[in-house]
Amino acid sequence: MGFYEFFYRYFVEPIKYNQGYNIVNTLVYALILGVAVLLLYKMLKRMGIKIDERFFVALMPYILLGPLMRSITDIGLLPRTYLTVSPGGYFVIAGFAIASLFVVWRHCNDERLYSIYRDFGWILVAGLLFIMVINWDKLSVRWDYFKYFIPSLIIAESFIWVLSKKFELVRNNRILFYTHFYDATTTFVGIQFFGFWEQHVLARTLMNIFGTPAVMYLEKLVIITLVVYILDRLMTEEDPELINFVKLTIFILGFGPGTRNLLIALLR
Q1: By C-alpha distance, which of 74, 82, 114, 116 is closest to 14?
Q2: What is the pLDDT of residues 160-184, one digit of tens each?
Q3: Count of beta carbons in the 10 Å neighbourhood of residue 240
Q4: pLDDT band at 81 (very low <50, low <70, confident <90, very high)
Q5: Which residues pair with 267 in a beta bridge?
């Protein structure tokens, strides 16, 4: 098999035919993500931008852009191409976020940077929302989704709340656990009650083994616990801002897909 055939089979066909992820592209995308996190962190350090609450608030609209673009693509308001579905769509949004930050930083390297960067992001979000508004007559809302989603989310997040009272590791990283259990809930409800399917290869395999999408909660609990244990207990000598940036990335990996799942299930 030549390089073109290999690339087409494992990277193009899954998007073209909506096949989901496979073990090959999953590992490659994970490697790209890891390298990108390190490079972005070094870039932010050079720019003098701290990974703190101000940066998180300024970044929030860009975090919303990914799930918004993916959801309006899946409901047919944007053409389905490599640049509008994952992971290509997230590369596009990341490119917008990085380019916008660099431009703002070049012209406004002071306290105003965060507010200007944030506001530009909200303008981009407004653009996608405008596409939805002008096409609202083509859409319908699946309101009965909340009948299953809200009770499931309350139970899931209550479980994390109980764990946070008993375990310091969970308590110190409860936002990450809450966020990924929100993601797990959107997956569970979508598959269990509305006939959706899982795109990620590990979760799909676990669901086939255990016979239920509820296994997503176990997967999330194990993976997030392992990751934060490594970050908080085994990497104590690393730069705290690097740890914060990795945790920010983990938050995005939960909040983005969860919000995408929520929107896709709601709108049709």
Answers
A1: 82
A2: 999 999 999 999 999 999 999 999 9
A3: 10
A4: confident
A5: 141
Return the pLDDT at 17. Answer: 77
CA trace torsion 180, 183, 185, 188 (10° rounding): -120
DSSP track, the chain = --HHHHHIIIIIHHHHTT----HHHHHHHHHHHHHHHHHHHHHHHHHT---SHHHHHHHHHHHHHHHHHHHHHHTTSS---TTTSTTHHHHHHHHHHHHHHHHHHHH--STHHHHHHHHHHHHHHHHHHHHHHHTGGG--B-TTHHHHHHHHHHHHHHHHHHHHHH-HHHHHTHHHHHHHHHHHHHHHHHHHHH-----SHHHHHHHHHHSSTTHHHHHHHHHHHHHHHIIIII-TTS-HHHHHHHHHHHHHHHHHHHHHHHHHHHB-
Q: What are the two backbone dihedrals, phi and then psi, of residue 2, each rounded to the nearest 5 degrees?
A: -75, 175
Mean of pLDDT values over 229-241 = 91
Instruction: Extract the tokens encoding 22.
Output: 């496979």
Query: Token pair for residue 59?
Result: 């970044």
Q: What is the pLDDT of residues 28-76, one digit of tens each?
A: 988 998 999 999 999 999 998 988 889 999 999 999 998 898 888 888 8
- Rounded CA-CA distance 181/214 in Å is 11
Single out the residue of 18, 54, 87, 34 nearest to residue 257, CA to CA.
87
Residue 141 bridge partners (DSSP): 267
For the chain, the structural domain boundaries read: 1-48, 50-139, 141-268
pLDDT attached to residue 244: 93
